[in-house]
Write a structure and sequence with these properties.
heterodimer, A: about 400 residues, alpha/beta, 6-stranded mixed β-sheet, 13 helices, 15 strands, B: about 200 residues, 8-stranded mixed β-sheet, 5 helices, 8 strands
Chain lengths: ~400, ~200
């Protein structure tokens, strides 16, 4: 019988790790991820999680240790965010081209400075171009379920890439809900036999060089380097279908169906749409319901998988709308808008969909994005349907 | 089990100081309500954690699934764990009319200030009770007993079970159950209707 549990998102993630039976975990605490690191340590100490827990002196070592473990054929887990992720960046960038299927919870946090310890997606968005798969969760249950699915996605032979399972700092990390804990036997059957890193493993009986100096301007250097890069891009593109398939398998086995790439909410007959990502989406849906009751033809598109970018799914969802308003929880400093908005502009141009679009930025450094904020987002997006002018970014919490 | 009223959405805000257990109180109550079949969502508002600093926690519950993962701005109910906090924090900010206020205090209602929106009041000398039981002013269990008494929205049994599952065991559990029970018994419930105050002591 599945057990019911009332817990926060960090504990839900830790239970997802327990059920996935990793061989090695390494964590270093950083707000708002710290309690996740504590749950993992507690579960190991209590014998609930039978994995080697590496105590290391910082995030750079955390991921370096896990790279070694993954190369030796271990299933691995870590969690980080914010400044911890910043300190982890060197091995972080190295992980995808090594094709190591490491799973990491990213308990998203805003960037410093100014000094802050609260949620925001600046950390995750800043590393969006590193070859990690990025999936954003909306509820504690989705965190648990996605953490388990992440292993099956990462270790899929057509993918072999690390996965970040992202959940919003504060609102999801500390937000408490009732969740259902799947049976271990069901999860074991879902994940199948553990067979990590069949393609390269550190084995004293079979010594081999890993990650030798590659590139330069002569010999096979350039073409070999291109092969690595193209291979990684191919793995990312393959992941789109794998993510969909594994979400379908999950739904069929456990009865919880999640939109794997993007979720269309009341989009069928929508004339305009708002776009959300992460925990803000619940308030967005409530606001859409209220607007619909008042006769507004609005729908909501929630992005779950941001890397790889789900271009076709977005095309299917947005091809019939006349305007979009995109709500970001982070900033693209170079474009003076939100990163999700910036990428949707690229997608719309690529797909030859020419419609007005406006960027909203909210929820920075722990600020809230409420139903009231979404009412403003919906109203503004409705108003831009017939405009040709480029639109200025709107900062939702500026006057809170 | 005692029959509980139907709830389409109930929003509450806990006020306390770091160390009094406001965040844990919201989690215990969430567990108790979930056991009674409600959908729950509790969100603490964290600053830099330190003892004595004002702490806020939010809790929504409903008979329907809850999608909003946000703080609460128009609470139906405010629970304040600290007697002096109302002097420095506006605990009644945007409380709904017909609101419920549960306050840790040994004062009587005529010596307390509160807005007209508040129509049901639960007063409980939680510091006195907690000092006797724990020797410290950890008042969350006591105030949950007061919440149960004032609103009738959660049973004591569910609170005891939730404490055992979420928070405490052995001697600590016994003490917290006693604190919760005493909070329930000694809570003074006052209905502020038509300008008259009717104070009944339990």
């Amino acid at each position: 019988m599945p057990k019911k549990l009332v817990c926060d998102g960090n504990e839900a993630a830790a239970w997802g790790v327990v059920l996935s039976r990793p061989d090695m975990v390494a964590v270093y605490p950083i707000t708002p991820q710290s309690s996740l690191a504590e749950y993992i340590s507690q579960f190991v100490a209590d014998g609930i999680l039978k994995a080697d827990l590496m105590d290391v002196e910082g995030e750079h070592s955390v991921l370096s240790v896990l790279q070694g473990a993954a190369l030796a054929g271990a299933r691995t887990f870590t969690a980080s965010c914010g400044q911890g992720l910043a300190f982890m960046f060197e091995p972080y960038f190295r992980t995808p081209p090594l094709r190591l299927p490491i799973v990491m919870s990213l308990v998203t946090r805003d960037g410093i400075s100014p000094q802050c310890v609260w949620g925001g997606q600046q950390d995750a968005m800043t590393v969006r171009e590193t070859g990690w798969i990025h999936m954003y969760c909306e509820t504690a249950q989705e965190i648990l379920d996605t953490t388990i699915m992440a292993y099956k996605i990462a270790e899929h032979r057509d993918v072999m890439l690390p996965v970040n399972v992202n959940h919003d700092g504060n609102y999801l990390s500390y937000g408490v809900e009732q969740i259902e804990l799947p049976d271990q036997a069901d999860v074991d059957e879902f994940l199948g036999e553990k067979n990590v890193n069949w393609h390269v493993a550190l084995d004293p009986e079979r010594p081999m060089g890993v990650d030798p100096l590659t590139g330069g301007a002569g010999g096979i250097g350039p073409s070999l380097f291109v092969r690595y890069r193209k291979g990684l891009c191919e793995g990312m593109q393959n992941a789109l279908a794998v993510i969909e398939d594994i979400h379908r398998q999950w739904g069929e086995r456990f009865g919880r169906f999640y939109a794997p790439l993007v979720e269309s909410y009341r989009m069928e007959d929508a004339e305009y749409a708002i776009v959300t990502i992460g925990s803000m989406s619940g308030a967005g849906k409530d606001a859409v319901d209220a607007a619909r009751n008042a006769g507004e033809p609005v729908g909501l598109l929630k992005i779950k998988t941001f890397r790889p970018f789900p271009l076709e799914a977005i095309k299917a969802a947005l091809s019939h709308v006349k305007a979009i308003g995109v709500v970001d929880r982070s900033v693209s400093f170079g474009w003076n808008c939100g990163p999700v908005f910036q990428e949707l502009l690229s997608a719309l141009f690529y797909l030859r969909i020419h419609i007005p679009a406006v960027s909203f930025i909210g929820g920075l450094a722990g600020a809230d994005i409420t139903v009231d904020h979404f009412e403003r987002v919906i109203r503004t997006t409705a108003d831009i349907m017939n405009t040709d002018e480029p639109l200025e970014t709107i900062w939702l919490n500026e006057a809170d | 089990m005692k029959r509980l009223p139907e709830i389409s959405m109930f929003e509450m805000r806990f006020h306390g100081r770091g160390g009094q257990g406001a965040v844990l109180a919201s989690k215990i109550l969430a567990k108790a309500l979930a056991e009674e079949g409600r959908h729950v969502k509790a969100i603490p508002s964290f600053g830099f954690e330190r003892r004595g600093a004002p702490v806020t926690a939010y809790l929504r519950f409903s008979d329907n699934p809850i999608r909003q993962t946000t703080n609460i701005y128009n609470p139906n109910c405010v629970v304040c764990l600290d007697p002096t906090l109302p002097q420095s924090v506006d605990i009644f900010e945007r409380i709904q009319s017909g609101g419920i206020w549960i306050q840790s205090t040994k004062k009587s209602v005529d010596r307390l200030a509160f807005p007209g929106e508040v129509t049901t009041i639960g007063l409980c000398d939680a510091f006195g009770i907690a000092l006797k039981i724990f020797g410290r002013t950890i008042v969350n269990s006591t105030m949950l007993g007061a919440f149960s008494r004032t609103t009738g929205l959660v049973t004591l049994d569910s609170l005891y079970n939730a404490m055992a599952t979420v928070a405490f065991r052995d001697a600590a559990l016994e003490k917290n159950i006693l604190a919760c029970k005493t909070g329930y018994e000694q809570c003074r419930v006052i209905h502020n209707g038509e300008g008259t105050l009717d104070e009944k002591t339990g």
